[in-house]
Amino acid sequence: MLKKFTLRNYRNFKDEISIDFHNIAGYQFSSDCISDGAISKMLIYGRNATGKTNLGRALMDINMLMSDIKMFMPNGVFLNADSTGETAEFSYTFLFEGRELIYNYSRSFNQELQNEKLKIDGTDIFNCEFTKGVYDFANLEYIEAEIANTDRYLQSLETNKEVEDTIETKLPFLKWLVSNVALNSDSILIRLVDYVRRMTMFTVSSSLMGFPRKINDSFYELLENSEKLKDFEEFLNAMGIECSLVLKKLPDGQRELYFAHEKLIPFFQNASSGTLALVTLYRRLVSRVWEASFIYLDEFDAFYHYEMAENLIRFFKIKYPKCQIIMTSHNTNLMTNRLMRPDCLFILSRIGTLTSLCNATPRELREGHNLEKMYISGEFEQYE
């Protein structure tokens, strides 16, 4: 699991900001927000333009770094515009079966990798200072990777030519190591890569903007399985959308999804924005064969009634009890102890600080406190 994440000098985050998933307060209620002694369900509030989306992008940066898919340079600023620092710094602390792994790296304004460091159980495994040409691979035997041909990796850095408009021009040593050394199946690096590759993020509202009126064939193919169609229908029902669904093949060979009534009603031409947002969520997350390790849901309830948003959080708790899920919202109805808890509810401020509700007031917050009322009355406003 991800134990801690620290960021500095990235987009609107000039100063250091951290998320410590192990910083819990020991509440005895809403224990389903905690898994293995760490926060597994987190809700972040923040005014507009405080950086909730940027925080998600930063958390997912390691996923992009380790991806096999070549990424292209996005438009926009990478470093903080008010900082004189030359790199954005990322630090991830993971915990796998009691073993701690810390992976640090930094990128420059063009997202070029500048340095990279790995530490396991307090031992420095490698340290790459790309800008200085200084490399330390002294402790690879600690992870049984001493046979790695590091000279070949260094040669690849010399011969690697920049490709226009690409993000990654320097191959991270960690990625190279995992790809070129036969590690044991129980290696902590294998666990790390598996976790990182199953991290995912999406913003429901932006995904819906270009939502096609006819869904792609792959989703129809999924729903041709009667059990999958039933699962999708039950998902909508659990969210409060009472409906029955029918998938039919048209004379021209195309397929169409319908609401089942006396007369069939085409689904995508008549579904509400909230229902379409649920479809996006189901397609991109629930229907997948693999199970996500980490999910960042930005504006997850932008199209939902507060009861549906509550239903969705309950669904996540049941379906993904151990998955670390961060949701961002403006919906203060969700700021309640019957659904969450003060050490899992956070406020992201305009100046880039992230504070849990239990640390945003001198009061000792208890189960009976009305957190929403306290928030609206200004109890936590100094942290906004």
Structural descriptors:
384 residues; alpha+beta; seven-stranded antiparallel sheet; six-stranded mixed sheet; 18 strands; 28% helix
Compose a concise summary of this entry:
The chain has 384 residues and is of the alpha+beta class. Helix content is 28%, strand content 24%. The chain has helices at 52-59, 61-66, 150-159, 173-180, 188-197, 204-209, 217-223, 226-238, 267-270, 273-286, 306-319, 371-376, and strands spanning 2-8, 17-20, 34-35, 38-39, 41-46, 88-96, 99-107, 113-120, 123-129, 134-136, 199-203, 245-249, 255-259, 265-266, 294-298, 324-329, 345-348, 354-356.
List the SSEs and their pairings.
Blueprint: E1 2-8, E2 17-20, E3 34-35, E4 38-39, E5 41-46, H1 52-59, H2 61-66, E6 88-96, E7 99-107, E8 113-120, E9 123-129, E10 134-136, H3 150-159, H4 173-180, H5 188-197, E11 199-203, H6 204-209, H7 217-223, H8 226-238, E12 245-249, E13 255-259, E14 265-266, H9 267-270, H10 273-286, E15 294-298, H11 306-319, E16 324-329, E17 345-348, E18 354-356, H12 371-376
Parallel strand pairs: 5-16, 5-17, 11-15, 15-16
Antiparallel strand pairs: 1-2, 1-6, 3-4, 6-7, 7-8, 8-9, 9-10, 12-13, 13-14, 17-18
